[in-house]
Amino acid sequence: MTPTIEVLDLQVTFLTSEGPVNAVNGVNFELYQGEILALVGESGSGKTVTSLALTQLLEAGRSQVAGSVKFGGLDLLKASQRDLRAVRATEIAYIFQDPISSLYPARTVGSQLVEILTVNAGLNAREARTRSIDLLRRVGIPGPERQMRAYPHQLSGGMCQRVMIAMALAVNPRVLIADEATSSLDVSIQAQILELIKDVASEYGMAVIFVTHDLGVVAGTADRVAVMYGGEVVESGQVRDLLRNPHHPYTQALIKSAPNARDESQTELVGIPGSLETRREFAKIRCQFAPRCSESFEICWSHWPRPVQVEKSHSVSCWLLSDEEEILATQVDEGLTS
Ligand SMILES: Nc1ncnc2c1ncn2[C@@H]1O[C@H](COP(=O)(O)OP(=O)(O)OP(=O)(O)O)[C@@H](O)[C@H]1O
Ligand SMILES: [Mg+2]
Q1: Please, are residues 316 and 310 in contact by the beta-carbon 8 Å criterion?
Q2: 48-59 pLDDT, tens per residue?
Q3: Which of 22, 24, 48 to mutate to test ligand 1, by most ligand atoms within 8 A of the CB atom?
Q4: 215: enclosing H helix or E strand
Q5: 219 φ, ψ to 5°?
Q6: Assign residue 303 a region: left if phi > 0, alpha if psi is -120 to 50, beta otherwise?
Q7: Rounded to the nearest whole angstrom, what is the distance from the C-alpha of residue 275 to the centroid of ligand 1?
């Protein structure tokens, strides 16, 4: 099956007054139709930057993006502004964390939905209104006819998030990117919105990239997961395999710190010591997690660990998975060629 999106060696560098910040360093992943892929990792691991880079939503003068993002015959990183606008308008939709600031405060919910449907989906005003009401109903907004006339500030956070989902769904996108779309909501509303995203993804056959720092949410929502650390994917696989059989010390620590990721009865929160450092060097010269890893050894500090496949579609970038012979060969090879 051809992936809906194929990301190859994505790199993002921000040009800041203190020098370059290498936010994403060689990320690879595929996203297939109808599946929910979670990007998970702690704050600063590069999840948002990765998802924004996919359709070139990062501010151009302040960042450099390399690699490729294949989508429907286009490489989105090389596409024209015209193609990109069309893709963003109708094929790849985003829902962000803060729905209130993503909606226009001075316009009613209905007029914002109707505009999307007339401008981007080509409906006439009457069709757009009917479809808007349908969409609001579909995302669980009670009394949708009446709520068409509501302004964003008149709705709760959960209701605004539903409106955002309705807006994202309005054009029937092939891909939905939800960046911490539920983390500002209280737990019961969060669960409802997650169910909603799951339902609409399967109903519309959409592919979803679900960004979260919460592995507990991943467990109940996603099909596959890519764990990010320091701008890299350090482990990826089917959610079930990865939660049951995590290999990377970072994934293991993340699971321990997420009380409900694997085992409902586990309530102790185990923090990961140390913090994610800002990354300035561009090259893959060592394991990014080495400074915080209790199991790191010599080679982790001098060589970048390539992804190793540990089971079908489950791969891990960690030197612990290589045997002594391979490690020695890498070091010798380096000695001869440098
Ligand atoms: N505009 C920017 N200029 C400079 N550095 C940036 C910029 N945006 C993001 N970064 C840096 O890029 C790295 C990745 O940030 P990103 O926002 O993708 O993290 P995240 O995984 O989404 O975290 P969170 O869970 O907090 O949302 C961080 O080190 C961040 O400081
Ligand atoms: Mg983020």
Answers
A1: yes
A2: 999 999 999 998
A3: 48
A4: helix 215-221
A5: -55, -40
A6: beta
A7: 14
Give the whole-angstrom CA distance, residue 64 versus residue 113: 34
CA pair distance 309, 194, nearest whole angstrom: 30
Query: Which residue has its alpha carbon closest to ligand 1 atom 16?
Result: 46
Query: How many Å lie between the centroid of ligand 2 and the Cα of residue 129?
Result: 33
Pocket of ligand 1 (CB under 6 A): 14, 16, 21, 23, 41, 43-49, 213, 278
- Separation of alpha carbons 40 and 242, rounded Å: 12
**Cβ atoms 168, 116 nearer than 8 A:** no
Give nearest CA residue, ligand 1 atom 12.
Answer: 23
Distance from C-alpha of 135 to C-alpha of 250, rounded to nearest angstrom: 40
Strands 19-31 and 5-16, how do they pair? antiparallel
Each residue of 60-115: pLDDT tens digit?
889 999 999 999 999 999 999 999 999 998 999 999 877 677 789 999 999 999 99
Residue nearest to atom 2 of ligand 1 (CA): 14
DSSP state of 276: P
Predicted TM-score of the model (pTM): 0.90
Structural domains in the chain?
A: 5-91+173-337 (3.40.50.300)
Give the Å distance between the CA of 298 and the centre of ligand 2: 32
